[in-house]
Design a protein that fits this description.
Low-confidence stretches: none
Strand order of the largest sheet: 1-4-5-15-10-11-14
Number of domains: 2
Largest sheet: 7 strands, mixed
Distance between the termini: 63 Å
Radius of gyration: 21 Å
Helix content: 40-55%
Number of strands: 15
Mean pLDDT: 94
Bound molecules: pyridoxal-5'-phosphate
Shape: globular
Length: 458
């Protein structure tokens, strides 16, 4: 009899990949470079070094090196919470009555509650290795800020987090986690920066935004000796570090000779989908395999499915470099949507290029349908999923239900990027039946796209 696939497939500690995979090396059409908002020239490493860490800038600009060695201290830290399990969702399959085989890679098993720790520990390591005193960043919902404070505590770096003011007030528990790890958390906009003071003067009483917090974090980094700015998604280097997810998933599947048909992840800035799907996309790019990939975005912020492939600002303050991505425009403001991590309007240029070239499909799903899936998953598999991750669950369930109709025994693998213990206000709204779906009108989308910058797009 054939061996039953275990409920959880764990790699051994010595099977954790020791190199990150750079999907750009296998892309025929390379992702478009970051460009200067003034005259559109591609940013040089000299221009990037005052803002970001040097070694990370090298990774950012490297489209050719296929594998990067993971530094020993980072590998050691990974062993604290990795390998992450690849779980066979037997209970969910049973609940759905589907012949499909469903697996999920579970990245929520660390205090930050998400995959973000995979990159924050790498970025903190390179900052320390460069002899820096500290790093600055922004956080919206708080996952990235938490992951970065954990990493900075480990490497004894100072960590200054600008947290969007509404989140700072509504999510005091996230803030306390960050402070426990030693980070300074400042509600943004604040009077600690020039841009913050200006925004406060122009918009008294504002709850802030991610774009504004980015501007404050960048200003603090460039004006404080020994500090640099770090970012938790979108950048090429972040997808590189997150490839650990896909590499582990590949190795675990291989161990039991499992061939996936469909790979699914949610799309925010693109780091968990890019990291999970990247190594499998590499197989497709090299002509070694053929998989179907589905990236899932919220219908309230449908960058891929309704946006435009164009250069755009990464911040609402319009001071950061331009990136070529699928965008609804940096001035597009999505409705108050609880999947906080998916509201960032910037998208990884790597994923934008791969989508443009037809390598994966994007699907937009509505919030209440997402929480229906989250509830179903929680009741069957026991894990309380993050709202962001539940976008991937929604589509995994939809695909499994299709198999139920056709009788196909497809193998579906999705990335469960994190847990939802700090998102209970959203769960409360769902449970009380007050959650709504907001889909932007065609007019609202057109208005956002009309404000794209001219630079890079002519
Ligand atoms: C931040 C976050 C996301 C979205 O960001 P990506 O860069 O697209 O991965 C998704 N899931 C969780 C749990 C997150 O914390």
């Amino acid at each position: 009899m054939k061996e039953k696939i275990p409920y959880k497939i764990y790699l051994n500690e010595n099977e954790i990949p020791t190199q990150w995979y750079n999907v750009r090396a296998d892309m025929k059409n390379k992702p478009a470079p970051l460009i200067h908002p003034g005259d559109g020239h591609a940013l040089t490493i000299e221009e990037m070094n005052p803002i970001f860490c040097e070694e990370l800038n090298k990774q950012e600009l490297d489209n050719e090196t296929r594998f990067f060695d993971i530094p020993e201290p980072v590998l050691e830290f990974y062993k604290m919470y990795r390998p992450s399990p690849l779980v066979r969702a037997y209970f969910l399959e049973r609940a759905l009555g589907t012949p499909a085989k469903i697996y999920y890679k579970f990245e929520g098993n660390n205090t930050s509650g998400s995959h973000k720790l995979n990159s924050s520990i790498a970025q903190a390591y390179y900052a320390k290795a460069q002899g820096l005193k500290g790093v600055t960043t922004e956080t919206g919902a708080g996952q990235w800020g938490t992951a970065l404070s954990m990493a900075c505590a480990y490497f004894k770096l100072d960590c200054k987090v600008y947290m969007v003011k509404v989140s700072y007030e509504q999510k005091p528990f996230r803030r306390e986690v960050m402070r426990t790890y030693g980070a300074t958390v400042t509600p943004s906009p604040s009077n600690t920066t020039n841009i913050g003071k200006k925004i406060l003067a122009d918009h008294p009483g504002t709850g802030g935004s991610l774009g504004c917090a980015i501007s404050e974090a960048v200003e603090t980094a460039v004006s404080t000796p020994g500090y640099r700015y770090v970012l938790g998604s979108v950048l090429n280097q972040v997808l590189l570090h997150q490839s650990i997810i896909g590499l582990e998933a590949q190795a675990a599947l291989k161990k039991f000779d499992i061939k996936p048909d469909i790979l699914i992840g949610c799309l925010g800035g693109g780091s968990n989908f890019g990291g999970f799907a990247g190594p499998f996309l590499g197989e497709v790019l090299r002509g070694e395999a053929n998989y179907k990939f589905i990236g899932v975005e919220p219908a309230s912020c449908p960058s891929f499915t309704r946006g435009k492939f164009a250069y755009d600002f990464c911040d609402t303050g319009m001071i950061c470099p331009l990136a070529k991505m699928y965008t609804l425009g940096s001035q597009f403001i999505p409705s108050a949507n609880h999947a906080g991590g998916l509201r960032f309007h910037g998208i990884s240029p790597i994923l934008a290029q791969l989508y443009h070239d037809g390598y994966f499909e994007a699907r937009a799903v509505e919030q209440t349908a997402v929480f229906d899936a989250a509830e179903q998953f929680a009741r069957a598999e026991g894990i309380l999923p993050a709202p962001e991750s539940s976008h991937a669950i929604r589509v995994a369930i939809d695909e499994a239900l299709k198999c139920k109709e056709t009788g196909e025994e497809k193998t579906i693998v999705f990335n469960l990027s994190g847990t939802g213990y700090f998102d209970l206000v959203a769960y409360q709204q769902f449970n009380e039946g007050t959650m709504t779906d907001t889909i932007p009108s065609d007019e609202a989308i057109a208005e956002g796209l009309a404000k794209l910058p001219k630079v890079g797009n002519e």
